[in-house]
Amino acid sequence: MHLWEWRPPPSSFRRWHRWAPAPGGPGQLQLDKAAQRLQEFAVPDELDGTAPRARRRAAFLVLWGSLNPVHAGHLTALEAAAEAVSAKAKGPVVAGFLAPSVDEEELENDQPSFAQRRHLCALACTDSDWIEACPWGRSSSSKVVRKIHKHLQERFSRVNGIAWEFEGWQIASADAALVLPLKRSSPRTVFVAHDESDRCLVRSYIAGCEQEKIARSVLVAMSRYPGVTSAEVRRLVSAREWDRLTERGWLAPAVLERLQTQAESAELERLRAKVEAQAAALVCRRAGADAAEAEAGLRDSTWRPGVALTGRAEADAVQADEAAAATLDDCPSELEVLQAVVEAGFSACSATVAWDLQLVGDAAVRTGMVAGAPPAAASDACPGTPRSVRPG
């Protein structure tokens, strides 16, 4: 590198990197709903009967957290907070944002990434006329509030000839009052209480604020879904309790459908991997058996693939063939076919390895593992397999 080439200092790079769009999705903040609501509230003073004002105030809300997954409690918390802010503030609430936190450390196998949680947030607020999903992953809600405030102020500083000034509110749970440090630079905060004890906790916290300005920037709202938690939703999703989730209405229909699709896809991939592992194990087992028979001199030198089985081995193979074929015919879906192959097929078809491999080939074609391949292609994969022991 030449001496005259410029390199940004580490602090500048970190600042640029922190505000860069998160990988896996767009970084543009959607403000169409906020623009529509501002158009509705941008009524001249002489028409709404109020005294002329140089500037008007509008509020926006930010619900930041892991949101794993986003559920009805998060959406209703935004609605309850909007009512509290509208009653307290001097202007309307024009926007609310679901802001999933950034992935601070390596994710576990079953933990969704930021991009996945952000996509679920976008699905959850599709039917709302004022809630959007934040496209950035940040390590704190105050950073999200400041960034959104900058975007709103730059884009909607004047609407229909009316100058607007925006103020941001962060939403936190009531127990966060025990650990959340509030100071003059902190965003305005709405604590969502689940019961009366939470309300008393927040009120005592507000009363304990020494600076009057901080006390006026803290509100409390009651939750409309006190029983729903992200941990309980995750438990039901892991248990595949889709009917219970639908009955309780804890998830938006689009979010529930997406989670169900992801769960079925993960299970399907797991079963496919298990089928492939079983097939590899059968090949290794057959190779070991052939080597042992050849070494002991027990194998007929005239035997070759394609000769029909005789005796008890053929009878066992035919019986296993019929049982497994009946099992496969009863499976209406790809997932159930793979389950039948894993749970019933391989355990029942131990008479010949050739039949086992043929079962894997036919199951792969029937379940789409060999895309576009006709059944005959799978049969030709084991050209020497006796016809009498192949699935019908």
Description:
This protein is α/β, with parallel strands linked by helices and 392 residues long. The chain has two domains: 21-46 and 53-104 and 111-251, HUPs (Rossmann fold); 267-296 and 307-389. It is 51% helix and 12% strand. Strands 1, 2, 3, 4, 5, 6 and 7 form a seven-stranded mixed beta sheet that branches. Helix 4 links the parallel strand 1 (56-65) and strand 2. The termini are far apart.
Short descriptors:
392 residues, alpha/beta, Rossmann fold, seven-stranded mixed beta sheet, 15 helices, 7 strands, 12% strand, disordered N terminus
Give the overall average pLDDT.
Answer: 72
* CATH topology name of the largest domain: Rossmann fold
Succession of helices and strands:
HHHEHEHEHEEEHHEHHHHHHH
Can you tell me the number of structural domains?
A: 2
| Radius of gyration over C-alpha positions, nearest whole angstrom | 32 Å
Pick out the low-confidence regions. Answer: 1-25, 301-310, 345-357, 365-392
Helical segment tally?
15
Report strand %. 5-15%
Tell me the CATH superfamily of the largest domain: HUPs
Distance between the termini: 69 Å
Please count the beta strands (DSSP E, at least 2 residues each): 7
* Name of the CATH class of the largest domain: Alpha Beta
Going by CATH, the architecture of the largest domain would be: 3-Layer(aba) Sandwich
Pfam families: CTP_transf_like
Protein name: Cytidyltransferase-like domain-containing protein
GO molecular function, one term: catalytic activity
